[in-house]
Amino acid sequence: MQPQALRLSRITISNLRSIQRETFPLSDFTALIGYNNAGKTNILMGIRWLLAHFSLDISYFDDPNHPVEAEGIFEGITEQILNRLGDEKAAELMPFLTGTTLRVKKVQRIPGELPGNIEFWAFSPSNGKRKGKDWVRVNDKFIAAFNRMFPESIAIWDFEGNNAYTKLMHEIFKPLERKFGGELSQVIEQFTELLAPGSDKRADEIQAFDREVNTALRPLFPSVKVELDIPVPTLETFLKSATIKVVDEDDGFERDISRMGAGSQRAIQMALIRYLAEIKKHHNNHYLSRTLLLIDSPELFLHPQAVELVRVALKNLSNEGYQIIFATHSAQMVTSEDVSTSLLIRKNRERGTFMRKRMEDAVRQVVKDAPSQLQMLFSLSNSNELLFADYVLLTEGKTEWRVLPALFERITGQSFALIKCALVRQGGVSNTRKSMQVLSAMDIPVRAIVDLDYAFTTATRDGFLSANDPDITECRNLFRELACHNHLRLVNGLPVNKHSNISASTAYAMMAAMPEAERPIRNIHEKLCEQGIWVWTKGAIEEHLGLNGKNEMVWRNFIENSRSKNFLQMLPDFDGITALCQWIINGSRGQF
Fold first, then answer.
1. What is residue 98's three-state secondary structure?
2. With contact defined as beta carbons under 8 Å apart, do 10 and 23 qualify?
3. Among 32, 74, 400, 514, whose Cα sits 20 to 30 Å from the Cα of 580?
4. Whether the Cβ atoms of residue 585 and residue 445 lie closer than 8 Å to each other
């Protein structure tokens, strides 16, 4: 059995720029998805600040009269990790553990406060000893033990400058530090003897400096004495001063990376991440510590193939001792595997930056049985575009998914992207009600397009229509009439495919074409439209568009024909399709 993952599982941020107070659940690989200025970078900054040692200036305070706070819940602090930390560090943490979980928070009350005055607190489980003092301000020993498990994060975004390179280089060269640590210590020890104050072997030149400066100082300030203090270098010191030179292979021109364009710098950053992922493969250090890698728009300036390479590298790092949290505008950075735990970040005047319910949590809220949960997640997560939309349109079959975008744009002059609509193919209608409930729980407006048979089968089961609806009953009577004149087999009054000379889909189209069916089908259509479901009144989309088949050649020809001048006049049901397009637009506006 694999040990529980060590990670920051949840963070609550208060009063940090656009974030008034919001809680964000985090996984090993978390995408923050939202439009520009939604506050995604502020979330990354809140995480970074919780794990670092710096002060926030007034620009980070939403309200300068209230403190900025970041509270984190850290999971996976197992007995194995405590043992590897050592008795002294483990003893600092254990009074604050609830099982394998630790809660800490950081509080800065004044903009620009000295870093040493910023408060760090830990939550103490109720044990009767502290008489209700749940939060305890911790000492430096606790912070040192905590930082051993969760070191300062690596942040990669535009205003980080060379800090990101330095931290990545330090991560990459950690094996070098372990390999040559002994030899380096010997060299450093020699430097220490030459440089350290009070050393018998201190260099003559340094001793002369101290002596002569103090001689010059004594007449000016007789009660003080100075000593030159030269810090002893470490490998980390060397890496902090290291830089990357970029050489143009065409002309041999050499430049410092800081002088490169933004696109070149981002490409080199992502190349370092790919290299780090490769050397950390199967490293399995995440049972002792977890470094958070925070990236703003990893896809920035990269071509599609490069974006995929970076996504894979980050995903691999999330399994090798790093927790990956990134803000993105690219659907390519989020595959179906990670859709359910991605965070949809939005902002409005009343709430500031906030998070819509995760798909994983919404499915759990709506669907109780585990097998159906898995089916639901698979159905919805196969379209990661829904995470980048403000409105979702569910479709039953592949025909709608293939031809509706071109048809909608031809009729309205707008694209689905322009109205921020994601077209999601369900591959069937059995999950329509639950899918709509899940998306509604995520606060995403949703509508669905279905074939006519849905109204007679699934819609009654799902409660959208009554089983005794008079319009349903009237249409059932028309099926009996059809059965008498055709070799049509009915089961419970409805057509089926088995042992029938006429397919069920053809039977529904035949019934819809009967003059007597027009009024009850129109009534059914309007009842479902009021609940966000468009039903094809002629049976299926093919009858409305005049399509003779359900294959790629038919769809491709239709899309090509949609560009012709007389295309609209050739549509068998121009009025119906126009009404559908307006219904779709109304859905993006929250109207019925």
1. strand
2. yes
3. 514
4. no
For residue 74, what are the CA distances in angstroms to 77, 122, 149, 332, 411?
8, 11, 10, 29, 52
Alpha-helix runs per DSSP H in 196-340: 204-217, 235-241, 262-279, 304-317, 336-339
Residue 306 has pLDDT above 60, yes or no: yes
Cα 384 to chain centroid, rounded: 11
Tokens of 199: 């050393």
Strands 7-16 and 101-108: unpaired
Q: Does the predicted TM-score (pTM) go above 0.70?
A: yes
Count of all residues that appear for the chain in the document:
592
Element (H, E) at 325: strand 322-328
Distance of CA 141 to the CA centre of its chain: 34
Query: Beta 119-123 vs 101-108: how paired, if at all?
Result: antiparallel
Q: Which two tokens stand for residue 271?
A: 């190349």
> Contact 388/331 with Cβ under 8 angstroms?
yes
CB 30 within 8 A of CB 341: yes
Domains in the chain, CATH or no CATH each: 7-160+278-352 (3.40.50.300), 170-242 (no CATH), 369-588 (no CATH)
237-275 per-position pLDDT tens digit? 666 666 777 777 777 777 777 777 777 788 888 888 888
Q: Quote the CA–CA distance of 13 and 550 in Å, as a whole number.
A: 51
Q: How far apart are CA 127 and CA 384, in angstroms?
A: 46
The H-assigned helical ranges of 386-502 are 398-412, 432-441, 453-456, 458-461, 470-485
CB count within 10 Å of CB 495 equals: 24
Phi/psi for 200 (5° steps) reads -65, -25
The residue-averaged pLDDT of 531-540 equals 96
Residue 103 phi, psi dihedral angles, 5° rounding: -110, 130
Q: Which of 564, 543, 557 is nearest to 397 (CA)?
A: 543
How many angstroms separate the CA atoms of 127 and 121, rounded? 17
Query: Who contacts 374 (Cβ-Cβ below 8 Å, separation ≥6)?
Result: none
The span from the CA of 535 to the CA of 451, in Å, is: 6
When pLDDT is averaged across residues 363-379 and rounded to a whole number, the result is 74
Question: For the purposes of burial, counting CB atoms within 10 Å of the CB of 566, is it exposed (0-12), middle (13-18) or buried (19 or more)?
Answer: exposed
Q: Which residues pair with 354 in a beta bridge?
A: 346
